[in-house]
Amino acid sequence: MPSLHEKVAIITGSSRGIGAEIAQTLAKAGAKVVINYVQNHEAADDVCMAITQAGGKSVAIQADVSKPADVTRLFDTTVEQFGRIDILVNNAGMLIFKQIAEFTDEEFDRMIDINLKSVFYTLREASVRLADNGRIVNISSTVTRLMLPKYGPYAATKGAVEQLTRILAREVGKRGITVNSVSPGPVFTELFRAGKTEEDIQRMAAMSSLGRIGEVDDIAQIVLFLASDAARWITGQDIGANGGII
Predict the structure, then answer these.
(1) What is the residue extent of each domain of the chain?
(2) Is residue 154 annotated as a catalytic residue, yes or no?
(3) Distance separating alpha carbons of residues 196 and 150, to the nearest angstrom
């Protein structure tokens, strides 16, 4: 396992699902981890407890990362708790599974706020607050490479995240900071299952070269690699983590 000994990591939206698995995986590698959540403090506390019981260090910090003031407070509190920030993983996100014609203005605005503005706000903060040789990993999605009905606005937000990733990599590279994105295919989480029938899920599993839906650990291990010194020569890239769907 790559070592993140004494590194400090913020993982947005990490009280459950892929984010919780990433948090626990980075903690096992030696990182001090910030569990970011918006409302579900009990779930965030459960993740912290699991990390502590495994011998790691973590703290739960409430912040709505779609709000600039909350993002600043998240970074400030992390520095107060752990003294520095080395790693940012942008995992917070949402999915509304509808055709474009069915989207309301409010739903579209909400998706832009949570999936795109939150990443912009945290990247802006990280670009000046991250320690030299830091690591940024943004969670995108394989749907940016496909033309799947009912994923239009979601794919649009994730495509924008990938562009921010590439450009920020150029802007902070002289400080040794790497910026990459990971694009999961279907992964068994609450976000993935929302609005899907069993037929939808089986059809997506069949699209994979490996014949299955991904697991949260499949994604967490890739994030761990990108957050480590082993990936110091990888930046501005999007890593497809989809079992060969495309």
Answers:
(1) 8-241
(2) yes
(3) 11
Contacts of 245 (CB under 8 A, 6+ apart): 142, 146, 185, 186, 207, 208, 209
CB 221: neighbour CB atoms within 10 A? 16
Those residues with Cβ within 8 angstroms of residue 206's Cβ, 6 or more apart along the chain or in another chain: none
Instruction: Given the residues 37, 121, 151, 154, select the one marked as catalytic.
Output: 154
Percentages helix, strand, coil for the chain, rounded to the nearest 5? 50, 15, 35
Q: Per-residue confidence at 122, pLDDT binned at 50, 70, 90?
A: very high
The architecture in CATH of the region 8-241 reads 3-Layer(aba) Sandwich (3.40)
Distance CA 16, CA 20 (A): 5
pLDDT digits (tens, 9 = 90+) for 150-197: 999 999 999 999 999 999 999 999 999 999 999 999 998 877 777 778
Query: CA distances (Å), 151 to each of 134, 183, 189, in order?
Result: 32, 14, 17
Residue 90 CB contacts under 8 Å (≥ 6 apart), including other chains? 12, 118, 119, 122, 123, 136, 137, 138, 139, 161
Alpha helices in the chain (DSSP H): 17-28, 41-53, 68-82, 105-111, 118-129, 152-172, 190-193, 198-207, 216-227
Question: What tens digit of pLDDT does each residue of 48-66 get?
Answer: 999 999 999 999 999 999 9
Predicted structure pTM score: 0.96
Quick count: other Cβ atoms within 10 Å of Cβ 116? 20
